[in-house]
Amino acid sequence: MKKSAKPNEANTTSGEGAESDGMTAKSQTELFAQAMKSFTSGDYRAAADVFEQASQGPSIAVNESAQMYKRMCQQRIEREAPQLRTAEDHYNFAVGLMNAGKYVDARKHLETAVDAGSESLHLYALVIVEGMTGAIDSAARHLRKAIQADRGLRSIARTDADFQPLLQHPQIREVLAADPQPAE
User: Fold this and answer.
1) What is the pTM of this model?
2) Which residues pair with 19 in a beta bridge?
3) Disordered: where is this region (predicted)?
């Protein structure tokens, strides 16, 4: 039985057989095409990651193009960054992140909003984010504080669909079940 000849590994400019760390020129070109689809659809973060992978292959021409497109992606990502100036800006941006399921990113903005002027609604949103990321003790502590600032949040939390997953935690149920403190 004859072994098939190995492709020329020294060829780094083109050819399906050229390899670089296990990547062939063909797979490099396929990665580049995948990145271009993300780029043209406006998903610059995903495109930048795939362009980075494509820039590691054996084809010098694809490497250079991938690096150029990666820089373009990075520039566009930087331009996308919102200019958040007020607590309300941070809160509104965080709500959008929460709706997209990006709770870790939302938490940073909600903490900024709460630090700027602890509105009970901002604090309530922080409770949801903390609960969804597993910080239950902190969520219970902030829920208690939010309810002290606005007692109406107790009934809102009991019926809010976004809050329902947090009701499985005894610490959260305990805060909601506590009798409101009479105003002095």
Assistant:
1) 0.56
2) 24
3) 1-27
pLDDT, position 85: 87
Residue range(s) defining the domain that contains residue 118: 87-177
The answer on 133 and 159 residing in a single domain is yes
Q: How many other CB atoms sit within 10 Å of the CB of residue 167?
A: 14
In terms of domains, do 60 and 137 share one? Answer: no
Residue type at 74? Q
Residue 3 lies in a domain: no
Q: What length is written for the chain? A: 184
Q: Which ranges constitute the DSSP H helices of 15-81? A: 25-40, 44-54, 60-80
The closest of 129, 123, 173 to 153, measured between CA atoms, is 123
Rounded mean pLDDT for each run of 10 residues along the chain, 184 residues in total: 40 45 88 94 92 95 95 86 85 92 92 86 95 96 93 93 95 86 49
Whole-angstrom Cα distance, residue 40 to residue 167? 42
Could you give the CA distance from residue 150 to residue 146 in angstroms, rounded to a whole number?
6
Please say whether the beta carbons of 9 and 19 come within 8 A: yes
Domain edge (last residue) among 62, 80, 98: 80
- Rounded Cα distance, 23 and 29, in Å: 10
In a domain, 183, yes or no: no
164 in the same domain as 115? yes
- Structure confidence at residue 118 (pLDDT): 63
**Are the C-beta atoms of 120 and 150 separated by less than 8 Å?**
yes
